[in-house]
Amino acid sequence: MTDLTPLIQGLNRLLTTGDDDLNEAMAEISHPDADWYWSDPVGHCAGAQASLERLFQPLRSAFGHLHRRPELFISGDSRVHPGETWVSGFGHFVGNLQAPLFGLQPHHHLVFLRYGEFYRLVDGKIAEARIIVDWVDLMRQLGCMPLPMELGTEMLFPGPASHDGIRLTDGPGAQDNATVLLVEAMLGDLKAFDPDTFDSAGQSGEGGYWHRDMLWYGPGGIGSNLSYDGFQKDHRIPFLTAFPDRVGGQHYARFGDGPYACSSGWPSIDATHGGDYLGVPATNRAITMRVMDWWRVEDGQLIENWVLIDFVHLFGQLGVDLFERARERASTDARS
Predict the structure, then answer these.
(1) Relative to the CA of 242, which of 9, 124, 222, 328 has its CA 20 to 30 Å away?
(2) Tell me: the pLDDT tens digits for 35-64?
(3) Which whole-number Å values give the CA distances from 242 to 272, 292, 314, in the listed order?
(4) Does residue 170 form part of some domain?
(5) Residue 236: inside a domain, yes or no?
């Protein structure tokens, strides 16, 4: 059994400790040569020190006082690479934005900056990190949303309805964890769909993978929805219309922990941009997507699913700089 308390406390310290203690705080939780992969515009940081300089220090400077508010934190043995132990979760960086951050101007108000994280542990310390920050949702909170469409309801990512998402003393889950097996079966059937209705076998209805009261929580630009019909309307149909040939796989980690499972790839989707998506006309370009998923099971069915996509990376492949769009909108609004 692994006690994850020191890790989650150490991650919190990266935001709250004094500048003089920041390197020590990082050394307590990460190997110095660990690879930290952040969503764009940060990208790959070779070594813990690079991650401090390129992400944590800019965050600390922009917010002044900032803290983590995790909503899910689970661990398990990866089914993708047996023998690897991973920790994953999501939550928000919480603080008042007081100074510019990657060119985004502050509004001096409270921000809940959504994040998702996967960490591979070796000897209890981070050897590899993959983190998506929902910059689009930050832009929305700052009033400079770069996408013209919002499909679902934009909201904070709530924690699990069961209120048991912080599992600090649970050891790595078995590779045949029932939750992750259910997820894998669902994903297997989800690959094939009717091009007219966009339905896939076994997903909803009596005996389906998804609970009738399922909640799907999506990233900024997609939003959240209730029920499988809501998921179809607000996410899946627009997504498959835009990327009809999408192929999943290539995950670096997938594991289960009790009623939870998670999976991520960097990238995990290859596709062609064959239709309009969130206001961007089809480019027919080949693209990849970095995606993170977390699921909760209740009564043998999937009832909650949280999803993050590195939209800055995706739209950059479509020729759209979301940060530039946000800055232009903020500048236009300031002049009007």
Answers:
(1) 328
(2) 999 999 999 999 999 999 999 999 999 998
(3) 8, 20, 13
(4) no
(5) yes
